[in-house]
Amino acid sequence: MAVYVFGHKNPDSDTVCGAIALADLQSKLGVEAVAVTQGKINPESAFILDKFGVAVPEVKTSFAGEKVMLVDHSDLAQSPDDLKEAELLGIVDHHKLGDVTTPNPLECWIWPVGCSCTVIKAMYDFYGVEIPKNIAGLMLCAILSDTVIFKSATCTDKDKKAAEELAKIAGESDLQALGMKMFEVKSAIKGTPMRELVERDYKDFDMNGNKVGIGQLELVDLALVADIKEDLAKDIQALKEEGNRHSVFLMLTDIMKEGTELLIASDDPSVVEKAFGAKPEGGKVWLDGVMSRKKQVVPNFEKAFA
Amino acid sequence: MAVYVFGHKNPDSDTVCGAIALADLQSKLGVEAVAVTQGKINPESAFILDKFGVAVPEVKTSFAGEKVMLVDHSDLAQSPDDLKEAELLGIVDHHKLGDVTTPNPLECWIWPVGCSCTVIKAMYDFYGVEIPKNIAGLMLCAILSDTVIFKSATCTDKDKKAAEELAKIAGESDLQALGMKMFEVKSAIKGTPMRELVERDYKDFDMNGNKVGIGQLELVDLALVADIKEDLAKDIQALKEEGNRHSVFLMLTDIMKEGTELLIASDDPSVVEKAFGAKPEGGKVWLDGVMSRKKQVVPNFEKAFA
Ligand SMILES: [Mn+2]
Ligand SMILES: [Mn+2]
């Protein structure tokens, strides 16, 4: 029986490429493994898979009775709804430790680095398994994506070193150009429905009993969304109400200016000032230097909600 | 500020030796680290530390405001009561994934092997750090203890390989004799109060909302406790009532016969038959081939309570 390897809901490129890489590594360690995703992949991931000639993984959302490995998360909220009915064999992640638990021992590789693929690179090295050229390309792109081309606060020396070594294997020499190309694809918004933009990289969190959603759009220029900012604001308000959420925040991150405009829909907007010390005006606020949801936004909100 | 490294409540030899080894490794990686324990060490651990000339770690039970790393557990019930007020930097473990969560990314090395020290051996190798002779002796003894000299159902090839390599570094050639010597120390019961025997290797679990305690005495011969079995039965009954527990079970494990006599104090003794298919008589039952609390007893009870 094959082991299913997959990342979080609303898959990003680390989740997609990480699942594919981990399934490849497991296969070479003698474990029959298949990478899948919990949902449709985003345009950036489609670009990466196409570039390196790797097939798009199938979508699968139910895993009762199956053996599984998780990538890029350890939160029940980001896992399949029937995870408890699956046998969890392992977790590879780089986030805070979530609320997934198991009845049996398992293999966890969880490191405080910028990208799951940095951890998977170390696993290939640890087990002495060669990384195929196309898989190295996928992993490299995941690192460029998660670390915003090494600019994110979550980026570590381990990520840079892993990316360098993967670039050599993949035969990629201009990482800046490759990263910018990816972010242009990611920034594509023309003709996209608002809800698809809001949910392109979106996660729900339980913050001290409050349901809080945080989405992020990483943009090469905030001007790209100037015309639709009001529509985005209306949509996160709608999303908040549909899901009985306390708040929905949308991070409009300018990767060149290295900061984030936060759009706010909240029962208590004062949590934003509590979290960041900056006063919102007109349902939004500029957060200079803030680029990482995981390392900068989530911890600050968790303190504000505590 | 030093990082405190420690294992679970009611420390066993893996918890004690693992904390000392991980603190040594961290120090060599440039992290100031101090091994401590959450309670008095058991006679087996005292024997090991004495044999290899390593000082007994201090007891420390409160960690608010401190940086910490956990060894040999990831359950809140086995952690310090104020763990949530500490900053958790890492976990090294070989059990099921427990309910510890963090607000920040951390480093987890959790493997499905027989002993935390097997994982720590791999960490030394991964980071290219040499293992000191006396630390290698401690880690070797932890593996012999946790795997019952390689006989436990939890023992893997990785444990055997790690033990072999550690034995070379420590200069130990007869692992069977070393293991038996340790279990003789562990089996020592003469003059020991009942409660101390029951709690020598004891853990509380939350099983579907029921508080369930499981203790284990690993003995070279069940005859060693023939005279005190009734007193032990009375004491687990008392322990059950004092703590409003649903059940307290005491595993009297015969490491030579490779099986366990289970003493039972329970609001509903039928869970034992549900868990093992064997009918208890007179508050006890023989479980042939059962030697591991973690791999055989806890999972079966969790299913029976589900
Ligand atoms: Mn990631
Ligand atoms: Mn252990």
Annotation, overall tally of beta strands of chain A: 11
Question: What is the residue-mean pLDDT of chain A, rounded to a whole number?
Answer: 95
Strand content of chain A: 15-25%
Radius of gyration based on Cα positions of chain A: 19 Å
Please state how the strands of the largest beta sheet of chain A are arranged side by side.
3-2-1-4-5-6
Oligomer: homodimer
Share in helix of chain A: 25-40%
What would you note in describing this structure?
Chains A, B: This is inorganic diphosphatase. Two copies of one chain form a homodimer. The longest helix of chain A is centred in the first third of the chain and has 16 residues. Chain A has ten helices and eleven strands. The first copy, chain A, folds into two domains: 182 residues, inorganic pyrophosphatase (n-terminal core) (Alpha-Beta Complex), CATH 3.90.1640.10; 112 residues, DHHA2 domain (Diaminopimelate Epimerase, Chain A, domain 1, Roll), CATH 3.10.310.20. The radius of gyration of chain A is 19 Å and the shape is globular. In chain A, helix 4 packs antiparallel against helix 5. In chain A, the strands form two sheets. In chain A, strands 3-2-1-4-5-6 form a six-stranded parallel sheet. A five-stranded mixed sheet of chain A has the order 7-8-9-10-11. Chains A and B meet through strand 6 and helix 10 of A and strand 6 and helix 10 of B. The site of one manganese (II) ion has 6 residues of chain A, from loops.
